[in-house]
Design a protein that fits this description.
This protein is of the alpha+beta class. Helices cover about 25% and strands about 30% of the residues. β7 and β8 form a beta hairpin. The chain is globular, with a radius of gyration of 16 Å.
């Protein structure tokens, strides 16, 4: 089932999400719905807060990035990387920060360069509640960091300079009111109710 994606301005996107346990109700169905929602919106990641749930859960499928202008090895890694992250914690971030033009399904039509470190160590549970500690790098690390920020109540726009924030403020207000054309289901926090 395709779920509506919560738009910029909804308080759930600014809330630090809660851990869940393995008996979280209907987790399997939720994961199926989240993947379906993400693919329908042509996303590479989706966090539970983006569908209105303040829980520490996100998923990633970097296959769409595999046709970027990258080394063959990196393209192959991106093509097959599909993962569920439950109760994730980034334990370490290292390396020289690099800029990449990011967007977000909750903030359609806004793209900006964001600086992030290239190598991260993450502790998380998969969909079977098996615990992992892994090191990720490159675009995979970036997508994980972006989704991880969602469960921490942080949006990529929060990482922009004061000037950049001022320049996109009008656009963000329009998004929160639903004054935007988007080709996937969304829920707008400040939309005028239709009579």
């Amino acid at each position: 089932m395709i779920l509506p994606i919560v738009a910029y301005g909804d308080p759930v996107l600014k809330k630090k999400a809660e851990d869940i346990s393995k008996d979280y109700p209907n987790l399997d169905a939720l994961l199926i719905n989240m993947f379906e929602t993400m693919y329908n919106a042509f996303g590479v990641g989706l966090a539970a807060p983006q569908i209105g749930l303040p829980i520490r859960l996100f998923l990633v499928d970097t296959a769409p990035f595999s046709d970027e202008d990258l080394s063959e090895e990196e393209q192959m890694k991106l093509k097959v990387f599909k993962r569920v992250f439950i109760n994730a914690k980034i334990l370490n971030e290292e390396g020289q920060e690099w800029a990449f033009n990011e967007g977000c399904l909750s903030i359609p039509d806004v793209r900006e360069d964001v600086l992030r470190k290239p190598i991260i160590t993450v502790e998380y549970f998969d969909e079977n509640f098996k615990k992992h500690t892994e090191v990720f790098d490159g675009l995979i690390a970036r997508v994980i960091q972006h989704e991880y920020d969602h469960i921490e109540g942080v949006l990529f726009t929060d990482k922009l300079s004061g000037l950049k924030k001022r320049l996109i403020k009008g656009k963000l207000n329009k998004i929160s009111k639903g004054e935007i054309d988007v080709d996937y289901r969304m829920r707008f926090p400040n939309a005028k109710k239709k009579r």
